[in-house]
Design goal:
heterodimer, A: about 280 residues, alpha/beta, 8-stranded mixed beta sheet, two-stranded antiparallel ribbon, 9 helices, globular, B: about 325 residues, Rossmann fold, 2 domains
Chain lengths: ~280, ~325
């Protein structure tokens, strides 16, 4: 059973829970009739999910409006998904990508599947793509490894926290990093980061072939697009003001990426039914 | 894909023609001690609203935990995304904060409450709002007969400055990190305090008079209200920063002695209440308040130190840890 959100023309959004080992992932399928492509969205990490939720949902809706079916979801232990965040590993989150991409692909195997990730999601998407999943890959601001994604999240949180602290009460990002490296878990914006998460993040890396589009072109026959987002893309990137910047117009970002997906889908070699 | 797992069920509402996405947290089975008794008769539901533009899980997924906790106590809990927010349909206003302060979500919240009360055969709803969510809760509470109580976390009753200039941001940042800046900031506070003392007990010019009127309306009906207040910026205990008007004292006085307003200060919480002290304190306070104002029949009426968190959750909320930050662009600034 699925929960239909709304229907706009041929687009309807269905929220549901997807069962994985020991937990359920919250998913929203932006379902379209006869899609020209499918995209699995892998969003930002932990507290970044909340900051970037509105532009991320609007991106999904933009894709769906262009006849691209989209599945977005919450990582295990985060947001509406169940599971204990403290017990999650990067391998768990990787496993979720494999399961969801298989589910999405099986909806109609003749339609090309694209993976799209932002921040930590880009690392997850890149690794899945490297394993042969998907007909195309779109990365927004991919970090070299998960540790960079954690640091970016930490930096944003520290920056915000400092707004509310004066003088000696202000702790720097290096204070927090020192603390977790000395074995104390960190509470970052309501999420407790276990020490093991930090330690393992250094080795959970983006495949080296995805360091640049040029390298990717040599390593893969499938299309790859890598976009480094600037501060203009806040709150998808660091910066911005909640309640203001998450409501601004992101058409300048959506349009070229949408065009790229449509173009790559048409060249994918997979038949596009009724497109 | 499933639409229901454990005690959670995904729901959609059609408040005022806009499709709203939400999550229903079913009350625990142990809350129905009497065979054949109506499981949810005489117990209101608790409706959680978005805090500004955050999705319905709230900072650190606190709302998910609190809703699970409320359900474990025996009260149906609902979290919804208001129009244009989270997974709901509709467009969010680009002047979201201003529009919320003017009551933008009053009608849709009231409609959602009515729809939930009807669909789940509830006698009414308690609205739970945090920061800007508490403003929407108050507007809706004053206008809807379905509202049976309010839980307001860090409510504010002024009209915040929409957005600070980059220069002002840099100046504030400098004041926070340098000794001289802190000194000047303290001096600035003293000057503001002098100005404040000259105006007597009247609220400042930037008070949200429309909201204060709603407050008067709603407290006059003796609706039970729980106010939870976290320490503010440069605050000393429950008192606001020097030079800032004490709105909490003001609205408690405004409510009068016959009102049923409980104001509690939550030491150790941050504005988001997402840190462990904040989360735990919210649970303690809402449990005591719900049981006091909306007692349940049978043994479940006891607050049994319920520690229900998220499915599979193992963390305890009793440890002292670092605080999490407030939301960016905190609406509390500029009082």
């Amino acid at each position: 059973m699925q929960n239909q959100l709304h229907r706009n023309g041929q687009v309807q959004e269905r929220a549901g829970y997807f069962e994985v080992a020991g937990a359920h992932l919250y998913t929203v399928l932006h379902e379209v009739t006869n899609p020209v492509a499918r995209v699995l969205l892998m969003g930002p990490f932990a507290s970044e999910r909340h900051n970037s939720y509105l532009p991320w949902v609007r991106w999904a809706r933009s894709l769906a409006a262009a006849n691209i079916e989209v599945l977005r979801y919450d990582y295990r232990g985060i947001g509406e998904s169940t599971g204990s965040f403290e017990q999650m590993t990067f391998e768990d989150w990787s496993q979720d990508v494999l399961l969801l991409s298989a589910w999405l692909q099986n909806r109609s195997p003749h339609v090309p599947l694209f993976l799209h990730g932002l921040g930590l999601g880009a690392v997850l998407a890149g690794r899945a793509f490297d394993e042969g999943i998907g007909e195309g890959l779109l990365l927004w601001s991919p970090p070299a490894n998960a540790n960079q994604a954690l640091r970016a999240t930490l930096m944003r949180w520290v920056g915000l926290e400092q707004i509310f602290k004066f003088g000696d009460d202000r702790k720097s990002a290096s204070d927090y990093i020192r603390s977790i490296e000395q074995g104390s878990p960190l509470d970052v914006d309501g999420y407790r980061w276990p020490v093991s998460l930090w330690q393992r993040s250094f080795d959970f890396a983006l495949p080296t072939a995805l360091a640049s589009e040029e390298a990717a072109a040599q390593a893969y026959t499938r299309p790859v697009r890598i976009v480094k987002l600037t501060r203009d893309a806040a709150p998808l990137t660091k910066g911005g003001v909640v309640g203001y910047d998450d409501l601004k117009d992101f058409g300048w970002l959506y349009a070229p990426n949408l065009e790229w997906i449509l173009s790559a889908a048409s060249k994918s070699g997979k038949g596009v039914a009724c497109a | 894909m499933l639409e229901s797992i454990g005690n959670r069920e995904l729901i959609a509402l059609d408040g005022l023609g806009v499709r709203l996405q939400g999550t229903y947290h079913r009350p625990a089975d142990h809350a129905f001690p009497l065979p054949g008794s109506d499981p949810i008769a005489n117990r209101p539901g608790v409706l959680f609203l978005n805090s500004l533009s955050l999705p319905r899980a709230a900072s650190g997924d606190s709302a998910v935990r609190w809703a699970d906790f409320v359900a474990e106590l025996g009260y149906p809990a609902f979290r919804i995304d208001l129009p244009g927010l989270g997974d709901s349909a509709g467009d969010a206003s680009t002047d979201l904060l201003d529009s919320i302060n003017a009551g933008r979500f009053e009608a849709v919240t009231a409609a959602a409450m009515h729809e939930l009360a009807t669909r789940f055969a509830l006698p009414g709803m308690v609205i739970f709002g945090h920061c800007a969510g508490s403003v929407s809760a108050l507007y809706a509470g004053a206008s809807s007969p379905d509202c049976k109580g309010l839980i307001l976390l860090d409510p504010y009753f002024h009209l915040p400055q929409a957005k600070r200039s980059p220069f002002r941001e840099r100046l504030s940042d400098w004041a926070r990190r340098s000794s001289l800046g802190t000194l000047l900031s303290n001096l600035y506070d003293r000057v503001r305090n002098l100005r404040l003392s000259l105006q007597g007990e009247a609220p400042p010019a930037n008070a949200n008079t429309q909201l204060l009127n709603r407050w008067k309306q709603v407290t006059a009906t003796r609706l039970p209200i729980l106010l939870l207040q976290a320490p503010g910026i440069k605050a000393q205990g429950s008192k606001p920063r020097v030079g800032e008007f004490n709105y909490i004292d003001y609205v408690v006085k405004l409510a009068g002695r016959k009102s049923r307003v409980s104001a509690e200060f939550v030491e150790g919480a941050d504005h988001s209440f997402a840190n462990r002290e904040g989360r735990a304190a919210v649970q303690r306070h809402i449990a005591a308040w719900l049981v006091s104002h909306f007692p349940l029949p049978g043994p479940s009426l006891n607050v049994r130190g319920v520690s229900a968190l998220r499915a599979g959750e193992t963390q305890t909320d009793s440890e002292n840890t670092q605080t999490a930050p407030a939301d960016r662009c905190c609406a509390l600034e500029g009082r």
